[in-house]
UniProtKB/TrEMBL annotation:
Name of the molecule in the record: Fido domain-containing protein
Molecular function as annotated in GO: ATP binding
Claim: Nucleotide-binding is one of the keywords in the record: yes
Domain Fido positions: 88-227
Keywords of this entry: ATP-binding, Nucleotide-binding
PROSITE patterns the record matches: FIDO
InterPro entries assigned: Fido, Fido-like_dom_sf, Fido_containing
Active site: 161
Presence of keyword ATP-binding: yes
Site description Important for autoinhibition of adenylyltransferase activity, residues in chain: 38
Residues involved in ATP binding: 165-172, 197-198
Length: 234
């Protein structure tokens, strides 16, 4: 199987430590927006400084947890790029969570306490292993996952909400990795679109098109970056 031009570019720029390229731009944009959706208070320039220069430079005091999770998200995203062709397994997802939440409580393990998404109930902790097994078995049986399949997996993963914290970020990272594996332009959700994203998740059982449209809009964001850096879609 040939490597998608986007994946090839990301890997080569990472390997060659290219500054100011697509890899660096996508790394800091996805990290900023995905963490911001979940309540991170760091501004874009602070996130860029942490990821490109290893410097925390901010006009106001910053939370240590925000810095840790900025580094963790970048570490997990890089892992997704490095391992894009690997099959999705329970162990892979747990490791991804461990990278995101490294050094923090409940890192790399499934939840032990109940949680919710807004007003929506999620899987009981005791049911998480079985629910994840079913989800992964059904998804990995697909020979060529489509964009719609990946969005559907994302919804079902978020509905299970297998971790105590970090579910949204891990779910979006998985979707990014699976798009790369399938040769599909990936998507990321901008913080400014989070209300559409949450509405899409909430209404998915009856109106799946809303979440698909929101994710497709996130695809256009990545396409714009690819066009800017002259990376072909195919």
């Amino acid at each position: 199987m040939s490597i998608h031009p986007l994946l090839h570019t990301l890997r080569s720029q990472k390997r060659e430590h290219i500054s100011g390229g697509l890899y660096e731009s996508l790394l800091y944009r996805m990290t900023y927006h995905s963490n911001r959706i979940e309540g991170c208070l760091l501004d874009p320039n602070t996130v860029r400084g942490i990821l490109t220069r290893g410097v925390v430079q901010a006009s106001e005091p910053v939370r240590v947890s925000d810095v840790l999770e900025t580094c963790g998200h970048a570490r997990a995203l890089t892992y997704c790029i490095d391992t894009a062709e690997e099959s999705l397994t329970d162990e892979y997802i747990l490791h991804l969570h461990a990278l995101l939440k490294m050094g923090q409580e409940d890192s790399g393990v499934y939840k032990t306490r109940r949680n919710v998404i807004g007003m929506t109930m999620t899987s009981d902790p005791k049911d998480v292993p079985a629910h994840m097994h079913t989800l992964l078995t059904e998804y990995t049986a697909l020979s060529s996952p489509t964009f719609e399949d990946i969005v559907d997996f994302h919804y079902r993963f978020e509905r299970i909400h297998p971790f105590q914290d970090g579910n949204g970020r891990v779910g979006r990272l998985i979707a990014f990795k699976e798009c790369l594996r399938a040769g599909i332009v990936p998507f990321f959700i901008a913080d400014t679109k989070k209300h559409f994203y949450y509405r899409g998740l909430h209404e998915y059982p009856t109106q799946p098109g809303f979440l698909r449209e929101t994710c497709a809009d996130g695809q256009d964001t990545v396409r714009a970056l690819m066009t800017h850096f002259e990376v072909p879609e195919k």
